[in-house]
Amino acid sequence: MLGLDVCEFGGQFLELLWLTVCYRGIMADKEGTAPVHEEEDETDLNYQAPAQKTLQEIQELDKDDESLNKYKQTLLGTGPVVLDPSIPNVQVTRLTLMCVQAPGPITMDLTGDLEALKKQNFTMKEGVDYRVKIHFKVNREIVSGLKYVHLTYRKGLRDQLSLALVLDMNLDQLSLALVLDTNLDQLSLALVLDTNLDQLSLALVLDTNLDQLSLALVLDTNLDQLSLALVLDTNLDQLSLALVLDTNLDQLSLALVLDTNLDQLSLALVLDTNLDQLSLALVLDTNLDQLSLALVLDMNLDQLSLALVLDTNLLAEFSSSLYLTPDPVSQGFEQAVNPSLLDKAVYMVGSYGPRVEEHEFITPVEEAPKGLIVRGIYHIKSYFTDDDKTDHLSWEWNLQIKKDWDSTESCISRLGVLSLFSASCRHGRPYALSHVAFNDRHLSTSSKIKVDLDNSNGIAVMKFDNPPVNSMSLDFLTEFSINLEKLELDKSCRGVILTSAQPRIFSAGLDIMDMYGTSPEHCGAFWKAVQDMWLKLYGYSKITIAAINGASPAGGCLMALCCDYRIMADDPRYSIGLNETQLGIVAPFWFKDTLLNTVGHRTTELSLQMGIMYHAHEALKIGLVDQLVPEGKVLSTAVETLGTWLAVPGHAREISKSMMRKPTVDKLLANKEADIKNFVSFITKDSIQKSLGMYLAALKKKKA
Ligand SMILES: CC/C=C\C/C=C\C/C=C\CC/C=C/CC(=O)SCCNC(=O)CCNC(=O)[C@H](O)C(C)(C)COP(=O)(O)OP(=O)(O)OC[C@H]1O[C@@H](n2cnc3c(N)ncnc32)[C@H](O)[C@@H]1OP(=O)(O)O
């Protein structure tokens, strides 16, 4: 692709590696506020950064080497894209929590009011896998050693709540000791009651942590002797216990009710003895957001009454000073000031050059914490920094771990939308996607596309089901891109097969009705959805195979061309090709590039000018498809083929794919807006609308 032989390429690759090492030393932008201080966990190896070079200096290196220059362009961009020095070199624009199971996108806009973010809670279901994606722009100079740092605090958490109450009375002796100790990991309650009005003793020990609940109750009375001991141990998936004890040797009553499930622990203890009257009632209720304890004691041997009510909101914001300080990054802050720092994560983002489009960085998969105790609000401080500790952006936000997601609607409206799909939302189109359940085998029942992921082999089959001809409308394209994105994030999915649920038609291409007689705004939104579909599919990291089981004109052909491998039904009725000129329209440059990259220059020239639709055998001959099989075997062959592709080491295949396709993808990325404008002005022209109208009429006439 680069016109290099293997040795030459190897040599240049080494050279680039060397350059990359040099770039690490390149001075990062000095703008921004106070430098971010982080505790340096790494051992200082006395590393001396190489002499710093500017972007221009690097671009000057070996500038006569055309191949190297092309490669440098891909790596570093073409040069400064924003000259205005008042605009920061690095601009962090948004953070997305990517989670396959989420009912909607979870995105925070970092270009707006960061103060408002501090008050917002982003909800995540406990136990789900997620990744963090950060979009950022580099405007002028290469920035090296970018890092994303993520400090997580338990919001408003008290490390410990302890209460000890000891009561001692010697009007014929009553002693009570109550010890309550709770922190996030543990709740312990010990209650000892002792009265020697002819002897009554009660000991209650309750101990619960995430995995285990233990309860021991010992009751002893020797008013003609009654003893009770109860020990209970459960692993917290639901426990209920009720104990009622009644002895009428001068009357003793005891009722104990204990109820606990994952969300709630309730304990009620009522004790009643009328040997000159003793009453005790203890109510304990904790659901981890809240701990309530009420103890009422009543004695009338010369009268003693005690009532204790304790109510504490374990997760409330006690005081902002507990976790917010004027200088959150000052030395030792995490340990000294904030005892509830739970986690510090540092992600190496890398070195980036300026370019028009945003860069994106995605963290490895993490698992959200799970369980009764960990549910609640976490306060997160995020820093986007670099080797020089320049503070490109720091912001704070809250993540609320809940037993379940918030409803889809609130999730989407509260948190904003994922950029990829923003066009359809901006234009007021709701997602056509129903809730996607990624569990087990069955994946989604969205209205126009059926997705079936087989967890045994990691192969997902996406079946287009948009009758009559699987035309790609705005809704279809949006749904397609969402499904594709979800599968890309789903680590159990290893490859995707595209095929049709409609007989004889793979896809009739773009929906002409979205381009004919619609407003310029609609055309713009539609074209953006076409671009996003192409960008996602052509640049897809996982393996894609088109199982072409029917006719595949224009956009249908484009979709198949985006895949890594094409298997077509061996049937003379089916044809495939970019036939745009037959409609009086022109395939844009990225359609052209996709075909060109597959079948070569001359065939593309013929194909595009003439708008040729190739029958299956011709398509195989020119390399437009890779294999023909009987129609009944198209899908099974695709599954088999995907299996052989999966045998190739994934990272090597992925890098190779990216190496082949990235320049083509980058070309559209750099011209997205202009391409939309161009399309809108072209498609809304009277002459083009007339051509489309005639084409539609011809389709209907053919049918008649
Ligand atoms: C200077 C300029 C430089 C650059 C330009 C800038 C930008 C680029 C500008 C424009 C580029 C736009 C790119 C467009 C790409 C496309 O994909 S355009 C769509 C092309 N598609 C076709 O040509 C396919 C047409 N359809 C067929 O050939 C047949 O329908 C097909 C073989 C698929 C199936 O045949 P059959 O089973 O016999 O079904 P019918 O023909 O009877 O069709 C059933 C109904 O479906 C309607 N229909 C068919 N295709 C489409 C479609 N693509 N969109 C909307 N509707 C479609 C058809 O009219 C029938 O409707 P009816 O039942 O009669 O109401």
Automatic annotation (TrEMBL):
Domain of life: Eukaryota
Keyword Cytoplasm listed: yes
PROSITE patterns linked to this entry: ENOYL_COA_HYDRATASE
Catalytic reactions on record: (3Z)-octenoyl-CoA = (2E)-octenoyl-CoA; (3Z)-dodecenoyl-CoA = (2E)-dodecenoyl-CoA; (3Z)-decenoyl-CoA = (2E)-decenoyl-CoA; (3Z)-hexenoyl-CoA = (2E)-hexenoyl-CoA
Record InterPro entries: ClpP/crotonase-like_dom_sf, Enoyl-CoA_hyd/isom_CS, Enoyl-CoA_hydra/iso, Ig_E-set, Rho_GDI, RhoGDI_dom_sf
Major subcellular site: cytoplasm
GO CC terms: cytosol; membrane; mitochondrial matrix
Protein's pathway: Lipid metabolism; fatty acid beta-oxidation
Keywords: Acetylation, Cytoplasm, Fatty acid metabolism, GTPase activation, Isomerase, Lipid metabolism, Mitochondrion, Transit peptide
GO MF, one example: Rho GDP-dissociation inhibitor activity
Biological processes per GO annotation: fatty acid metabolic process; nervous system development; Rho protein signal transduction
Entry EC number(s): 5.3.3.8
Subcellular location: Cytoplasm; Mitochondrion matrix
Family per similarity comment: Belongs to the Rho GDI family.
General function of this protein: Key enzyme of fatty acid beta-oxidation. Able to isomerize both 3-cis (3Z) and 3-trans (3E) double bonds into the 2-trans (2E) form in a range of enoyl-CoA species, with a preference for (3Z)-enoyl-CoAs over (3E)-enoyl-CoAs. The catalytic efficiency of this enzyme is not affected by the fatty acyl chain length.
Subunit description: Homotrimer.
Protein's name in the database: Enoyl-CoA delta isomerase 1, mitochondrial
